[in-house]
Amino acid sequence: MTYVVKPRVRHPLLPINELGLTRRDYEGAVSTLCAGCGHDSVSAAIVQACAELALPPHKFAKVSGIGCSSKTPSYFLSHSHGFNAVHGRMPSVATGANLANRELYCIGVSGDGDSASIGIGQFAHIVRRRINMLYIVDNNGTYGLTKGQFSATNDKGSTSKKGVPNLYEPIDLVSMALQIGASFVARSFSGDKRQLVPLIQAGLVHKGFAFIDVISPCVAFNNHNGSTKSYDYVRDHSERLVSADYIAAGEEITVDYESGSLEDVAMPDGSTLRLRKLEEDYDPRDRVQALTHVQRAAEAGEVVTGLLYVDPDAADCHDALGTPAAPLNSLDESALCPGAAALEGVNAQLQ
Amino acid sequence: MKATNIADPNYFHKVVDCQWACPAHTPVPDYIRLIAEERYTEAYMLNWDSNVFPGILGRTCDRPCEPACRRVRTEEKPVAICRLKRVAADHKGDISAYMPRVPKKKNGKRICLMGAGPASLAVARDLLPFGYEIDMFDRDPAGGGMMRSQIPAFRLPADVLEEEVDLILDMGVNAHFGYEITSMKQMLDMDYDAYFVGTGAPRGRDLDLPGRQEVDDHISIGIDWLSSVAFGHTSSISGKVIVMGGGNTAMDCCRTSKRLGAERVTVVVRSAFDVMKASEWEKEDAMSEGIPIINNRPPKEFLHDNGKLTGIVFECVKPIPDGKGRYRYEPTGEPDVVMECDHVLMAIGQENHCPWVERDAGIEFDKWDCPILDEDTLQSSHPKVFFGGDSALGPENIIWASAHAHKAAISIHLMCQGKDIKQDRPPEGVNLISQKMGIHQWSYDAEHDASKRFIVPHANKRKALDNIKIEVELGFDARLGLKEAQRCLNCDVQTVFTEKLCIECDACVDICPMDCITFTDNAEEGELRAALTAPAENDEQDLYVSESLTTGRVMVKDEDVCLHCGLCAERCPTHAWDMQKSVIHVPQLGSYATR
Ligand SMILES: Cc1cc2nc3c(=O)[nH]c(=O)nc-3n(C[C@H](O)[C@H](O)[C@H](O)COP(=O)(O)OP(=O)(O)OC[C@H]3O[C@@H](n4cnc5c(N)ncnc54)[C@H](O)[C@@H]3O)c2cc1C
Ligand SMILES: Cc1ncc(C[n+]2csc(CCOP(=O)(O)OP(=O)(O)O)c2C)c(N)n1
Ligand code: SF4
Ligand code: SF4
Ligand code: SF4
Ligand SMILES: [Mg+2]
Q: What does DSSP say about strands B308-314 and A272-277: parallel, antiparallel, or unpaired?
């Protein structure tokens, strides 16, 4: 908890985006999380991503459940809409929000406890329904808010702070998301904004359910030597597979010199995702290969990161339901209550 | 880049922009905090220690610290550093307990100080506590030099001047006032152990134009005229006055004329407004008193009617920027203008001038008639003779006089003690003291205050223009002083980084309001400056670079616009960042303030 108020002054050379806003205008309240919590870096990455995309803050719906991670929507985009749901129930609220107003960018932030333990049922179904949103799990392998119990994503054999080993197999949310219908699946690390920010940008413009599993160390309860979700462990064992650069529509693509083979993916809004495959024969559009690769790597004790799978053309929930293009909450009475004649027409079809 | 060596006293000293810019290196944030704690006496003593004349300087200093103040870069207007110094002086209590003790038993060494201006006075202040016997000579009837003879009372009231001059004289100076020095050789014959020349730059420049000789009765050299006003020989001026020149002397001349009854006063400057030597605030004050400043008018000729001055002919030129921040001037083609006047005050500069130093007395002079001095010791080519203040390097100001005095006093002391005046000088140093008091508790007020610079209240203008003795600026009262003090960013409370504690969690990067901190691959300085979270374009401000971290990257902090808000240290889980006060040890004889 920090008591010093963050000054409003900013660096005089901070970039100003097309809306006339700087990154500082996308911030939220000063975090009350523990100093050094990975979740704060994820919030900072969201702030940076939204500012760079020049998205209007008031066009956002932030949703979350319960946990340190679920507190974070307070710490970014203070000028947007938000709903802090009960534990594990963010998907229901997100679904409702997206159905009612499909024009809002929907960001859900959840924890591994919130999504993989109490909320796993809700998680599975929001993935299946392909709600058009960016769903981020700040994955620290522990219940941070309730002081460090093992969560369902904690690796078997990994120990608690006091040295007690975890006895159970972990749930891998990335594999689950791949398996049951997410059309954008990525994994990243809170300590690597160079990778995370473009992933968030891509996830925001992606149409359909975009899922990012962000390993985000809990400095208070799960950053010790026996942990597989500590800063040091993740840095030592992570393997960048496919990195993504987000290139806005009309923006010049500059040459860069990093290694890896490139593949450009056209996004529905006219922007481009430039993928850099660090493993030649990996195909980020092949869901089954992605699933296999992630599992193999996990067996070898490696954490693969990057954009693991993307299908830019997949249908989302609105497509499946055939809802009108205008947000439901904007429909007026005549559209919602078309009158007796229309009702008779419907009835006639059913006879 | 190589990792920064924070043990180098200059590294953090440079971060304290104001202190670095102050010739005497006054510990500004330290005294501003004392003011915020309403500890005015201690704040005063801290100043007295470094700059010797806080009450005088709090009104008249050239304030090189203010344009340097970090607040100019983070927001807009600097902290009113100078006016806060005055707050300390105006509100101080009894300082006698803090005064250095001067031994009754002398150390046997006799020092001759020539001139009783700020330079000589400050040398006396530094040397007296060490038992030196000090003889001071000045032709004026009282001490203070140009602080007394030049700076008008409406900027510096006599009692403020006298208090600080007497404070030193009363430490036991043998003052010989009304003593005109006419021969250096004669002085050297008195066989003092050391000599300090603090006789200033006492000759005002003149302008030889057609008609100059004929109208001599109607022309005064600005500094001579001001000093005759200061000593009561002149108490009025009538008719239309033209002040020629664009420096602070010109501003004092025109404002003084206005108060002494001139019918109309005009300042005419040969060059452009923005390159005038006068300080911004002096120009503002003159203009707000209704004195027009006319620029780009070089004078050509004095017009007269049988020796009675009637006017001056000026050429019309326009400034053409030369691309290097300077101007050259071209005629505009307009016809020359004639300005009517009855009296001219010539304020076009001063010169070093010591005709009384025989050129064969062992003291060498350069072609500009300035003594040749060793920069570090201020020793002349005569081993026993030191120079300081305006007499050393040409006309400067009071704060430079204090700074020179400290240097010269060290040299004199070392010489008298038989030490090497170059090798044995006390070193600069820095101490770092953690300001952490507990969780979320710092011993300084870390919170940023967004207030705009507060305006100093002025005396009623009509009354002020009626009487030369009425001080124009009233100074901050305690309440405004407190508010202005809050604006200081505490640039001496440094962000100190310990590599081996850092876990590279980015918490500091994320919280920093000014984007000062970046973790990145190391590179050459230019490349690094461009690669930071916010580009570091101000080359005058250093980058703080760490040793290599676990990931192979380095931490780079751009010192330029850091608010010293402590948030990086607040959010650091491992205490790799700490806020530590840097106490800079500036070499000086004795130290009388408590910190
Ligand atoms: C009009 C004017 C306004 C100024 N305003 C400011 C201001 O607002 N702020 C600021 O910081 N500075 C100001 N200055 C500059 C400042 O006054 C000087 O830089 C400063 O006083 C220099 O100090 P000093 O000790 O070197 O010499 P001085 O103050 O010039 O003292 C030299 C002393 O030596 C004496 N002396 C000289 N020759 C002899 C001799 N042959 N025999 C005996 N005695 C001799 C003189 O009488 C004088 O008392 C101003 C200067 C002028 C002219
Ligand atoms: C219905 C319900 N059951 C249990 C809790 C207690 N509880 C609060 S947060 C939490 C776990 C949070 O873990 P996670 O989602 O991983 O968040 P983290 O704090 O680790 O970021 C639990 C079990 C609760 N608030 N509500
Ligand atoms: S308990 Fe863990 S997850 Fe929660 S704020 Fe602290 S470090 Fe972050
Ligand atoms: S903010 Fe304060 S410490 Fe910093 S340069 Fe200005 S006066 Fe000095
Ligand atoms: S003190 Fe730390 S957080 Fe505050 S501006 Fe400076 S570097 Fe940034
Ligand atoms: Mg968790």
A: unpaired
